[in-house]
Task: structure prediction
Amino acid sequence: MKYEVNRRPDVGQLCDLRESVGYEPFAEDYPRAFERYSATVSAQDGDQLVGWCAVVGDDVRHAFLVDLMVAPTHQRRGVGTELVRRATEEERAKGVTIVHADFDRANEAFYLSCGFEIGLAGVRRIEDS
Result:
């Protein structure tokens, strides 16, 4: 497995990965979104993108882990844990002291194992109705 920080993945592979985990592909978001991430971490198995996450934040104190994805064929092999570790280390190097993540309750044990504390948060969708 090869991990890379701040490497822009092929958009087609990223969209395929998104769909493999049940997300919408949102191909129209790229490359614009790449320019706004504080950091990204990708996991490659050969020439296949099998894991990816992004971080958005102020590069001072707060960062938010978003779109953590691992292909179903590579889940439960430590790929997600390594993506989180590398992403948080990248932010720590900038001086960031708090990394937030929102996630499905089904993934709570994973985030606890990565050192996250579970608290309350809110999400407000502001798309057009």
